[in-house]
Task: structure prediction
Amino acid sequence: MTERKNGKDGKRIGLIILSVLVAIYLIGTIIFSNIALPGTYLNGKDISYASKKEALESAPDDFSLTINARSDKSLKINPSDIDYNAEVPSDAKIDQNPFTWPSALFGNKKENFDFDYKVSYDKDKLDKVIDNSSLMSNVTEPKNAKIAMKNGEFYIEDEVPGNKVDKEKLKKAVIDNINTKSNELDLDDSYYVNPEVTSKSKQIKDALLDAQKLKDMSIKFNFNGFDLKLEGDSLLDLFDMNDVGPELNYDKVYEYAKYLASETDTYGKNRKFNATGIGEIVVGPGVYGFKLDVEGMVDKIYEQVNSRKSGVIEPVYSNIAYVRTDDGGDIGDTYVEVDISRQHLWFYKDGNLIVESDLVSGRPVDGWASNVGVGQIVNKVANTKLRGLNFDGQTSYETPVSYWMPIGWDGEGFHDAPWRSAFGGNIYLTKGSHGCYNLPPSVAGALFKNVDYVTPVVVYESSTNNSPGMAY
Result:
């Protein structure tokens, strides 16, 4: 009896529980007919338990875009900022089976509904929002890695990434996110103007190896009498550092070549000279002397330095002298010497006196005096005619000579004067030449035979002061 009663009670309880569960299930089914099941996403946004109708209608208004950038910068774009509007497609529907709500509730399944809204916005306002944002202010420009030098050592200075956003790429990404209703945009490296050369670039590593070769270079210049070298700091000072390493600066190289000229040129400078029978005197300049070709030296320096090899550079001259002495001078033991005051000439070759003679120089009246300075044997011409103006400045003369040796650009030179019977003394004061140096024919012939081209001709006045300086 008791057992039968207990059995009936158990069945009754089971029916009650079942009825409750069925009721709950049916109620859930009714509820989830209008609201979204758990794990439901609308265009990427979780709308679980939300009214399907309201979720669809409010989705366009629920848009905002947050942009995260370098340097802790960010930008949030709200719908009102750009007059954003999105229309729900007429066929948009969140179609779910409400009878599956238990599995959705207790499961871990996600279901996403994507709809293409008809989106519109004000492009000009979008441009202004971007332009006026922190993303576009306080910009740090990117910088390439470069070769730098400290304490005489080259090293790679790291690049600077900066935070300069590529506006066109950013704008395109923002538009894409607006159209897809994405709410967040993280700007990776592709959205920035990045350095083209980094510390890991092969280009910069090769540049470092190239730069390090400069430290060991030594360039010598073959100037007799001068110990001039281009190395160490003086070499490195000719370079500018750019993104790909040290690069020769033309202006600096040019200035260095000018420095070499200032140190070694003898052209256009006064000289100390050991005058025969007198001793040391100072003689002014003329057409004789070494004059460095500055631009030619620039080319030589570029060629040698760019080879990254030590070496010796042969000087390039625009004017060359007969000899470069051990003390850097240009008058050795071969030269022609003329003292206008003593009206005398000496010709020394390799230290030996070859020719010595009295002469007659230009008459020191009305501008006919011979010029002083250091000239050179510019040319040697046999059997020619000399032409010029007579002392009256009106009529001209034509005089045949056997030997003609000009010594500069003034029209002056050595030649034979067979019409004269006497030379030296004070003849030149009243019966001097038109500026040339008249010599006895035998003396002129001996000089012509033994003197070489470019031999220096030193002309001075030891006790008088009538002559102007040579042109040069």
Q: What stands out?
A: The chain has three domains: 12-136, 210-264+291-317, 335-460.
